[in-house]
Design a protein that fits this description.
about 400 residues; alpha/beta; Rossmann fold; 2 domains; 8-stranded mixed sheet; 5-stranded parallel sheet; 17 helices; elongated
Length: about 400
């Protein structure tokens, strides 16, 4: 999973309880060696910030509220192994140094005298944590509109990857999520349950909250019963996805076609985005609108793979016309096999178990290379040419 706005190889830092002069000294010391926040945060926000941002280093000011800084040490340590705590001050005080060490701070730094010590602590924390590199890959499956087949593709892509990799399928449709129904699962716990226990969320809690499908896919589902549509923040979703990426080699997120904070946050941190459309004008036009939104979010086009689902010879739009309209290549096509797809959905089975010889199974299996090998394109079937030059003019 990518960290939003973070360059790999640079440690991410959270700064707590430091005044403007202290922030200036930190910036001058670290320069481009770390990803620094715009401002320091208050002591009482530190634990929440660490849970949501998962930094490598927390720099805590000891010149402000000394007692609160000491109290924070054990609380921050409890947030996970590999987190480096650094106390920062503008004066040397043996009593404070001892208190910081007892509270779990690795270094007590006086700036600007100890600039080299702070830089060394940040470098070593980044090497020790290896957080971004150790995380699993996050793949978002996004539908251009309702009914294009994003949930079916997400479920079956996860099932194709699962024989050789640990995979978690996450249902991010908070209104009408269907992943559990597509896989005939009766989840005892759900994503909603995790969102109410974020302060205690770790890999162990996550493992106890997923349902396991016979294909070996672990599913983090939506509740069986409909609940009132609550506003889910991007920060909450990011906390869950971070733990999922820490626990599994691959996370496949079914984002459906919703445009909300949860799905926008998910696409922003995804390693790969599969944008699913059908070969018809409404679907392609909405795919174009979704691409414009992703561009405004700052998402690189190189992370997006266009998938044309329900593809068959003689469709309304050719692949060439779709590519010209959207400005990105078609990475994969998935054949139209209504009989097999309906049979799988109604029986709650994966496509391979219904008809392993179906062209749909062949095409989804070929899509695995997009996720696991970094492929940019899967060999597509023949395209039908039709004049649709007026589209999006």
């Amino acid at each position: 999973m990518r960290r939003q706005g973070v360059n790999r190889g640079a440690a991410q830092v959270v700064v707590v309880g430091v005044d403007a002069r202290g922030m200036g000294l930190i910036r001058e010391c670290l320069g481009t060696e770390a990803v620094l926040p715009a401002n320091s945060i208050p002591y009482h926000q530190a634990v929440d910030a660490v849970q949501s941002q998962r930094p490598n280093v927390v720099i805590t000011g000891f010149d402000g509220d000394f007692e609160e800084a000491v109290r924070l040490g054990p609380l921050l340590q409890a947030q996970g192994q590999g987190l480096q705590l650094v106390a920062i001050s503008q004066q040397t005080d043996p009593e404070r140094i001892r208190a910081a060490m007892r509270a779990g701070y690795r270094e007590y730094v006086v700036l600007p005298e100890d600039s080299g010590l702070l830089r060394q602590a940040v470098r070593e924390s980044d090497l020790a944590a290896g957080h971004a590199e150790d995380q699993g890959q996050l793949i978002s499956v996004v539908g251009s509109k309702g009914g294009v087949g994003s949930t079916l593709l997400a479920c079956n892509l996860a099932a194709e990857i699962s024989p050789v990799q640990r995979v978690c399928l996450v249902d991010l449709d908070f209104s009408m999520g269907d992943v559990a129904a597509f896989l005939d699962l009766q989840p005892k716990s759900s994503l909603q349950d995790l969102l109410t226990s974020l302060t205690r969320l770790d890999s162990r809690m996550l493992s106890g909250s997923v349902s396991v499908h016979p294909s070996k896919v672990h599913v983090l589902a939506q509740p069986t019963e409909l609940i009132a549509d609550e506003q889910i923040s991007g920060e909450q979703v990011l906390q869950v996805l971070t733990v999922v990426a820490d626990t599994y080699q691959f996370a496949v997120a079914d984002c459906g076609c919703r445009i909300d904070e949860a799905t926008m946050t998910t696409t922003a941190v995804s390693d790969l985005i599969l944008l699913v459309t059908n070969p018809d004008v409404p679907s392609v036009k909405n795919a174009w609108r979704r691409l414009q939104l992703m561009e405004r979010q700052g998402i690189e086009k190189g992370l997006i793979r266009l998938v044309v689902n329900k593809w068959r010879k003689g469709t309304e739009l050719s692949l060439a016309e779709i590519e010209k309209s959207l400005g990105i290549p078609v990475a994969a096509t998935v054949a139209y096999d209504e009989q097999t797809c309906l049979a799988a959905i109604n029986a709650g089975r994966i496509l391979r178990d219904v008809d392993k010889r179906s062209p749909v199974v062949r095409d989804i299996s070929a899509m695995v290379s997009l996720a696991t090998e970094g492929a940019t394109r899967v060999e597509a079937g023949p395209a039908e040419k039709k004049p649709f030059g007026w589209l999006f003019k």
